[in-house]
Design a protein that fits this description.
The chain is mainly beta and 403 residues long. It has five helices and 17 strands. The protein has one domain: Porin.
Length: 403
């Protein structure tokens, strides 16, 4: 989260009581003593609840049982505080359930940073964040938890994987950012080093076996360059990361590395937007006595058209494509080796979506997915991959609130 020093925060008495603990993170005692510090406090929250119905396969709970699944819930509260002009302290607690057990919804720290701006003027902004920062990844990753910032209920799963969300969402470390105002527009550069979040189910989602584990004791790096023209019509970004994890695969120690590159383009007019992103993903697992080869390169892309009918109504259409291994696009070799069905190695998704936002605090959304393949299907909802169907359909409905 980044904000200009001149931004004016609202005063909320309840927020002061809930988030006064953030003052303890301020860098100086003099700042803590300033009677105006709490006047800069701002608190926001959001809640989203979805109903998911599929004809085959399960997504975020038992969605194919006829009555659907209501196990997709997002509840968050965030707060920001300025102990002095140059420092912003911000944090968000998130309770999120996406299938799995009820205990999965236990609140966790989504992000929590101390943001220090060394330079902030009309020409440029230069700052550094320390703590748990949101990864600058693609166009939507840093705001993906708030339904109002998403163009659809589900982001394109070929780029913004929900099955391995923990790995991409945030890291514990340091992030440096620069915003440079140039004659033609604005250039934003962000680069961070830290330890990514892994989550308890990451090994199962990546390798498909419950006996494996994965951890993030090694440092990883991520960077993004984004350009936006003065009119706001055109955006272009390039994101890259080098993720290093320690794995235990079938009792053998191994090093897992993941290097994604994402190119993003967006063009905006008053009544419509056209967005496209392409990702190239290289991953490898190195160690002794490994039974499988994980040295593969995959790619994914989507093209999305969003139309604003009125200020409160909009619809979109999107084609989203994922290939796990470019050397085995159909997954036949994967199936022949006994690792699972061929259709688990790809997914082509046609999405139609509709959103109604009668006011700034309420949104209702619905969307339909026709999917060929199960490449991004959550393993925890479908433990027996051989029982999944290649062609399947999904309906989602979501109610979202914010304050």
């Amino acid at each position: 989260m980044k904000a200009s020093k001149s931004f004016q925060w609202s005063d909320r008495k309840l927020a002061k009581r809930l988030m006064a603990c953030l003052v303890l993170l301020a860098p100086t005692a003099a700042s803590l003593a300033d009677e105006h510090v709490l006047d800069t406090l701002q608190v926001h929250g959001f809640l989203s609840q979805a109903l998911i119905v599929t004809d085959d396969n399960n997504f975020f709970g038992p969605s194919s049982n006829g009555s659907g699944s209501v196990e997709f819930t997002e509840l968050g509260i965030n707060a920001s505080l300025r102990p002095n002009r140059d420092v912003l302290v911000a944090a968000q607690l998130l309770s999120r359930r996406a299938g799995g057990e009820t205990s999965d919804a236990q609140p966790t720290l989504d992000y929590g940073v101390i943001d220090y701006q060394m330079v902030s003027n009309q020409a440029r902004t230069l700052g550094v964040q320390a703590g748990r920062f949101k990864n600058p990844f693609g166009l939507y990753n840093q705001t993906r938890d708030v339904a109002f910032t998403r163009p659809s209920i589900l982001l394109p799963q070929s780029i913004y994987f929900d099955r391995t969300r923990a790995l991409g969402i945030a890291a514990d470390g340091v992030n440096v950012y620069l915003e440079e105002r140039i004659p033609s527009g604005t250039l934003r550069v962000s680069s961070g080093v830290g330890r990514p979040q892994t989550g308890s189910l990451l090994a199962k989602q990546l390798f498909g076996d419950t006996g494996n584990s994965i951890s993030s004791s090694s440092l990883s790096a991520i960077a993004q360059v984004l350009y936006e023209d003065h009119s706001g019509k055109f955006l272009a970004a390039l994101s890259a990361a080098n993720v290093n994890l320690d794995a235990n695969f079938a009792g053998n120690a191994a090093d897992f590395s993941f290097q994604p590159w994402i190119a993003s383009l967006q063009y905006n007019e008053e009544l419509w937007s056209l967005t496209a992103e392409f990702a190239l993903r290289k991953q490898s697992l190195e160690g002794d006595n490994l039974s499988r080869n994980f040295d593969i390169t995959g790619h994914s892309w989507y093209l999305q058209y969003q139309r604003r009918i009125t200020p409160s109504w909009s619809w979109l259409v999107r084609y989203d494509s994922l290939v796990n291994n470019t050397a085995d696009r159909s997954g036949r070799e994967y199936e022949q080796n006994g690792f699972g069905p061929a259709h688990s190695q790809f997914a082509d998704d046609v999405t139609l979506g509709l959103q109604w936002t009668p006011n700034s605090r309420l949104m209702l959304a619905g969307e339909y997915h026709h999917v060929n393949g199960t490449g991004w299907l959550p393993t925890q909802d479908n433990p027996d991959a051989s029982a999944t169907r290649q062609h399947w359909n999904m309906l989602l409905f979501q109610l979202s609130l914010r304050f």
